[in-house]
Design goal:
The structure is a homodimer of 228-residue chains.
Chain A: H1 9-27, E1 32-33, H2 35-42, H3 46-54, E2 60-61, E3 65-67, H4 68-79, E4 85-90, H5 94-100, H6 103-107, E5 110-117, E6 126-127, E7 130-134, H7 138-145, E8 147-152, H8 156-169, E9 173-176, E10 189-192, H9 195-211
Parallel strand pairs in A: 4-5, 4-8, 5-7, 8-9, 9-10
Antiparallel strand pairs in A: 1-3, 2-3, 6-7
Helix pairs in contact in A: 1-2, 1-4, 2-3, 7-8
Chain A binds a DNA duplex (22 and 22 nucleotides) through residues 8-11, 34-36, 45-48, 50-51, 53-54, 58, 60-66.
DNA sequence: CAGTGTGAACCTTTTCACAGCA
DNA sequence: TGCTGTGAAAAGGTTCACACTG
């Protein structure tokens, strides 16, 4: 059967989760893993694991499971993590600093190559082993360091300006932590992480749980928050 | 028509996004907004906005649009944001500190009520106007401050232990920033934010863009990253 | 015979398109 | 006339269940 080149979006979002679970398993020196075990570790069900992995090809062995090391390799290849990616962080406030020092990036092939801020007073300050540069230097930094991904950690009101500067400088992918939607030209990818949004979603389900107290109001119990 | 009490999960995840856009619009003193305008501001399409809002009830006016202030009120009510929620942050490293100082929480009704860390050496240290407390104090803090939501900002290896402590202390909702899956008893909600996962997803699409260079390989162009 | 790979059924979400209302 | 609200259609994602294989 010809393998379809395109992997469903939902699968793409889960591959990094499997990858981490697999790396943990590898460290625990597991040679092989079943879809059941991997599902458990990733917090999904095993049918989903098998479907997802089948999009990569037939890398499992019936009656045995998947070879951990080989599967790690395949997922890395599929996600483009065999190379490492240089990222630039724009906006070195609390969040920017936390991101600059976040070990999870380096562990997974993302190298924080540069830090920029619009505040001239901050320029020259050291964070970890990088020096904060002025945002005006972006074009040179992107070019020099071959930066592919820009991370926006500025306040909301600066985000669009910085996004424009990143794009102008040649960055093609943007991860936006600012609590505002930014617009970019076609061909540039954006993902948005909004810390407060996640809390609001939790609050919704928390509130709904409280409603469980007066269950008698209706026949059917109020649903629990769906597992992800 | 009887309005169904249950709002689709996909809609719940978008309500906070609409809410923010609406608050921005309100600040720009817009009295009314059409589904088209709101869609633009939220980065989705207008049919989705109308479907989503229709789950809250019929709050729009045909030929005119939605009353911004009223819609804000309705979404807040639906999300349970009319009260404010006390949260505790566990693990006061770089990320924990950034979260403790993050304005976006307070702005949206989340009050950081306590900070805890397992490292006794950190106890007593001040971050903003809170003092770091020892993780052992969790039960007392949760009780006293009526904490509903716990945020885990510890390293991966401490996350499960802290999650257990939070649940033990009475927290019913957990936002997990640690790069590991945690398990909790039924009835406790967990959402997970993984900073590196988002980067990995971007890398996937970035890599795919690179593949566009050799478009001739196949008839159909490689798809762009789907908009969220 | 344990566990993958996968059609088929099912469910959720998105999009379309337009009737109906202010 | 302009824009909401919503059935109906389409797309996308999940789960089931089992044939098949190492």
């Amino acid at each position: 059967m010809v393998r379809d080149r395109s992997i469903p979006e939902a699968t793409v979002t889960r591959l990094p989760v499997y990858l981490r679970a697999l790396v943990d398993l590898a460290e625990a020196s597991a040679g092989t893993v079943s879809s059941d075990e991997l599902a458990e570790a990733a917090g999904v069900n095993s049918a989903k694991v098998r479907k997802d992995l089948s999009h990569l090809g037939s890398y499992g062995t019936r009656g045995v499971g998947y070879d951990v090391a080989y599967l790690i390799h395949q997922i890395r290849r599929e996600l483009g993590l065999t190379q490492d990616w240089a990222i630039v962080i724009a906006g070195i406030g609390n969040l920017g600093q936390a991101l600059a020092n976040y070990d999870g990036f380096a562990e997974r092939g993302f190298r924080v190559a540069a830090l920029v801020d619009a505040d001239v007073a901050r320029v020259g300050e050291r964070v970890g082993d990088l020096e904060i540069r002025h945002v005006e230097d972006l074009p040179a930094l992107v070019e020099e360091l071959d930066v592919a991904i820009g991370v926006i950690a500025t306040p909301a009101n600066a985000a669009q300006v910085v996004a424009d500067q990143l794009v102008e400088a040649g960055v093609r992918s943007v991860l936006n932590f600012a609590p505002v939607m930014i617009t970019v030209p076609p061909g540039v990818s954006v993902r948005k992480v909004d810390l407060a949004v996640e809390l609001q979603i939790l609050a919704f389900y928390e509130q709904r749980k409280a409603t469980l107290a007066d269950v008698k109001r209706r026949g059917r119990a109020v649903a629990d928050m769906p597992a992800r």
